[in-house]
Amino acid sequence: MQEQRNNQLPFQGEGRGNVIIDTDRVMDCCRDRDCFENARVYLSPAGQDALSNATNVRIRSVKILWAYVGLDEVPFNRGFYQVTVRYYIDVECEICLGLNRSQITHGLSILEKDVILYGGEGSVQSFSSDPMNDYCNIGNFDTVGSNDPTAVVESAAPIVLGSKVKECGCPTPNNELVEIPDRVKGLMDADPIILTDGVRLYVSFGIFSVIRIQRPAQLVVQAADYSVPEKECVAAQNDDNPCQLFRTMPFPVGEFRATEHGEQNRPIRGGGGCGCGGNRNGN
Length: 283
Description:
Layout: E1 11-12, E2 16-43, H1 45-52, E3 56-73, E4 80-98, E5 101-118, E6 150-155, E7 159-168, H2 182-185, E8 198-224, H3 242-247, H4 260-264
Antiparallel strand pairs: 1-2, 2-5, 2-8, 3-4, 4-5, 6-8, 7-8
């Protein structure tokens, strides 16, 4: 069996030479800044009741709970793909109820965008071994051989650009009827209400993102042979002395500097908060 090895790229002198690695090659990519204006925020039953009696509303924080990334071929344009990104945004609101009373509630906003990127053409299907399967028991068919590329989306934390409350006696418009995946519902305290009439909350978001399409590729690179680390492992100490451990931590000087990064991390403010005036729209 010794003769069956691939010896075309041997290490040469001092453990250095060329090796073949299996990685992902970026076929096409783009960056974008999206403004999602007046996106509906779906609240829980308790949050919806509070919104109906609100004197003021402000957005405390927002974060991406999950994002669906879909990939579809573009007809009559071989090698090009449409990437569909659907963000599920958790919105934390402070609702003022008068007499200096407030209620913190969470809502869900769903944002969607599409881009076209070149993903190349593939003519082979890729399969791989699965340690959960054996010769007589093939139980995993989740991964089917495919020659499609993979779409990857990287997004910064959403920015709140504005918010407003609308009163409407009409039923929910068709463009606001959505389905919420179970994995998103599992991350929330209560299921949001989709079909509502009356008071509704809308928020405008800004999101910076980078989207790319990549394919598996085998590349030849220069590499050095594996080396043993020189640093020795230090055993963890459990001496029940938290103050001693705290004294060994470096002082976070950067957290006290008024730099540009510090300005970006300031909390979101809108409407003046409860008991501080401001209008109901939170602008």
